[in-house]
Every structure is written in structure tokens, then in C-alpha cells.
Amino acid sequence: MKKKFLLLILITSLFIIPSSYATSSEDIILRVGLKALYERVPMIQINNTTLVVGYMVEDQWRKEVLLNSASGFKFTPANRSYLISIEFFNNYEAAKEVVRHLGLEGIKAYPGSISLGMWKIFVENDNETVMDQVNNRFGLTYHQIEDNELRVVMEADEYGVIFDNGFIHPVFETIDTINGIRVFDLGERKYRGRIEIGRYKSTEITAINIVTLEEYLYGVLPGEMSPNWPMEALKAQAVAARTYARYYRDVAPKYRFEPYDVCDTTNSQVYKGFSVEHERSNLAIDSTKGVMVYYGNNLIPTYFFSTSGGHTENSEDVWSAAVPYLKGVPDIYETDPSRRPWVTVLTPESIKDSLNRRNVNIGDILDVNVVGYTDAGRVTSLRIIGTGGEYVVNNETTRIWFGLYSRKFKLIKEDSQLQQVFNVINRTNTTVQPVDDLYMINGDGVTKKVMDAKDQFIVLSANNINNYPTIKGVKDQYIVVGQGFGHGVGMSQSGAKGMAQNGYTYDQIIEYYYTGVKVR
Predict the structure, then answer these.
(1) Phi, psi for 510 (deg, rounded to 5)
(2) How do residues 181-203 score in pLDDT, each as one tens digit?
(3) Those residues with Cβ within 8 angstroms of residue 335's Cβ, 6 or more apart along the chain or in another chain
(4) CB-based contact 269:241 (threshold 8 Å)
(5) Where are the domains of the chain?
(6) d(CA 250, CA 260)
């Protein structure tokens, strides 16, 4: 959720977690779609030497067979025509023995797992004589089957297994360990827990990591917040991430039509598994185990983002609906932001291209104007004027369409006038001073004119952090001079860091950014 955000329609009605969900977070199982690297791909390689095949039966995992391979296990779609035995065996070894005998006769066959304790023989149906060769051999009869868009084949060393997946998907474990922890190695990333691999009505295959909620967080936290940040900030992030995952698993399921509860991208939360675990992040998770965020007795969607630029935002000023616990608050401890104040240059051509990609055509761009600002300082909308008409881009669409870090920005055009005077408070009164007479002291104690700042200077007020551009406008350019990174709703990660550095505890941080909530 850190680098990219979806437009969401907030659910304004409150949800109560049913008592059946009131279980320990160590018992809560998440199905994590490995969308970033292992969703709808032609092949998945598991680089372990052991693979334990099992099935979930009445919420209990039941072992079927332990497979070994020095070269690992390669999964691909089993999308061809097969002959499948009508009769079945109740164990892998019996089916494997039949396959061995058929192989000695030059017939390519596989043991096929149908369900717990049910194995059939799959024969590659690559010529018209195969049926005659295998039918009634070893007391088995066959019929032909076509691709069901579910079946996968696993190949290891010099043997293979087909997993039919038509009734139930097997779930794999491994006994290979790293530092005493059982870990799957999928190449670019490693994962705790179990792995499920299937096609789910696709021509390609997808991997799903099945882990406890706490194990999932071990692979989330380092991707969302630097493990070197203050411990109380890490704890706040752990609580927010835990609540977010639980909310979207149990209260408002986000992936009703997918075989997983959450995914590993910014569409849910960045999750990179065992590969990125860090002892400080793990400590923050362990020391807040099971702790979540509630408004009354209800879990909330704990949105978070990188950097506010001085003030978080009301939900209705970003998405669509006002939500009582998602109100903008001053973020004045965000003095060392992850995303420093920034500058982006838009041109008439780039604006036109962005609109055209969204099927908005107003001709050549003549002008762009900011329509208004929220109380927090974010642009509410941009009015774009073209040779063929006008178009107003509202709220988060502004940030997403034009690739901006945030909506907390000032727009500088060729005819823009920079602010010339400021109210300055001294020990006795307030005076109006020209900007050319104002000086600032940087972090090194060096004093210089504020207008000597390269792009903008930043002023900390009682309830915001504001930017003032020093850039002059240029013809045929729309210079966006901004602060912050992200949608601005909920907890600012940079702000949490600053609050922790100033002595606030994780629960105080959470209860500041989410209005009226309790951490428990």
C-alpha cells in the first residue's frame, strides 16, 4: 500500500466482527495471492528438496505423501488430453508402481492425485493406439478427458505427478528449514507456511501462500517501513497492517472472486515473505501480537501511506464518503519525511496524452487551473482547458492520472506570481515582511535567504507544514511543486516515525491518526 493506491469506495456502515472470528491471531489463516511474481505464469519452480503433499480436511491439514527431488519441483499447466483410469488407488506408491511398469513399455503416464487417499493413472493421449495399449492392464480401464483449466503437472528429477484440482486443491509443505524455520524457495522469494499451486480456470498457474496472520506480517512490515525506524513506529505499523488484513479478510472481503484473501502488491499490502524478514520488524510484530484497532467494537480499515506533507486528509476529500475515524489531523512531527518535497513538470502534450488514455479528448491544452484546496492543503480539482472544451479532474484522480506523488502542491505557470509578503511573528507582535527580507536557518545552522532555496521553502505552522515555491514559471510548462506521497488518509508513516522520535507510544500514534479509535 505504499507506492501506489487504488481508488476505493469507502464502506460507511459499521461492521461487527462475528464471535466466530474472535480467535487468536496465531490461529487466523490468510491465503495470500503471490500476484507480484507468481500469478498466471507459465511455470513455477520450487527449489526445495522436499515437498509434502497434503489436503485440508475439516480445517485440518492431512499429509498424503512426502516427495523428494535433488533438482526441485517444476509446476506447469497440464493442459493436454489424457486418458484417466476409472478405478483408483488409495495411496501414491501403488499408483506409482503402475506408472513405472507403463514407462518400461514406453508409455508416458503419471500418478494423479484427485483427493486425500485417491490416486488415479493419467496417460498422455498422444496417439490412437494408446487406449488399446493401456486399457484393462493392471485391472484398470480408462476414459479420455480434456483440459479442465484446473489441472497442473509437477515434474521432479525423473518422475512426475498430476494434481487434478477438480474437486480440491492439495496444499504443500516442506521439511527443508532455514534457521529452524520451514521455508519454501520459489526463486526470487522465499516463504513460510504452505503453498498452493493451481490454475483456477486459467491457461497459466498461480501460487498462493497460506500463512498465519502473524507470519504474514513478518513479510509485510519491512516492505512498508524501514526496520531501522523507531520501535514504536514499527509497532504502530504492525498494528495498522494487522488490522487492515483482518478487516479485508473478514469484514469487507476484497477478493471475493479470487482464490485468496489478500495479495502481495500495493492492492493489499506489500508482502515479500521470508526473504525480507528483519529481527526488529519481527520484534515489533511479536510485541503487539493480536493487537488491532477498533471504532467502538468494530474493526476499521486502517489506511496508511508514506508522507502527508504536514496534514492528513478527510476521507470524503480523497474518496467518496465521510467516515468518523478517517479525519484529517495536523502532522507536524513529520519533519524528516521519507519523500522529500518534490517538483514535477507537466507539459500540454503530457496532459493531453494522459487525458486521451482515459478517453477524454478536449483537443490541445491551452491552460490548467487549480479550482480549490482542502483545509489540509490538497488540491480538490484541476480545470483543464483545451481547444475542444474543458474537463475537471477531481480528488485522487488528479494524483493518479498525472503521476503525482500527492495532491498537496502548488501549480506554477508562466504568469504565476510568487508570494511577496509574509506575516512574521516576533516576540511582541506580528509584522508584514517582504519575502526578500526573510531568512532561514538550515539543519547545519547556516543562515540564508528563503528565496535562495532551490525549488521551495517549507514553513512549519501550528497545524500544518506548508510549502512556498521559489521557482519562476516557464512557457508551455505547468510546474507542480509539492509535498507528501500517497493518498493522505489515515496514518502517515513518516509522521509515525516523527511521533515515535518525540516519545509517543505506538497506541498513542494509532489513536492520533485514526479519530476516536481504541487500540486493544
Answers:
(1) -60, -45
(2) 999 999 999 999 999 999 999 99
(3) 460, 465, 498
(4) yes
(5) 1-37+210-337+484-520, 38-209, 342-483
(6) 12
